[in-house]
Amino acid sequence: MNKDQVKGRAEEAKGKVKEAAGVLLDDKGMETEGNVQKNIGKVQAGFGDLKEEIKDEIKK
Question: How many whole angstroms separate alpha carbon 1 and alpha carbon 51?
Fold first, then answer.
């Protein structure tokens, strides 16, 4: 696992928590912010996954 995968998944988890808190507290701003943070985390984790795949292909 590389740092982009780890950071991305951590951001995704934080975003999910923030989004859920926004729903529970009926705070649309927090809910939206959490959703954005979650999606940014997904993108970063996906980038990390891609880097790993490329690294694995180069080793072959």
Answer: 10
Angle at 52 between CA 17 and CA 60, to 5 degrees: 160
Cα 6 from Cα 35, distance rounded (Å): 18
Quote the CA–CA distance of 56 and 12 in Å, as a whole number: 25
CA atoms within 13 A on the CB side of 35: 8
Residue recorded with tokens 């934080």: 14
The pTM of the full predicted model, rounded to 2 decimals, is 0.88
The C-alpha atoms of residue 22 and residue 14 are separated, in whole angstroms, by: 12
* pLDDT at residue 21, rounded to an integer: 98
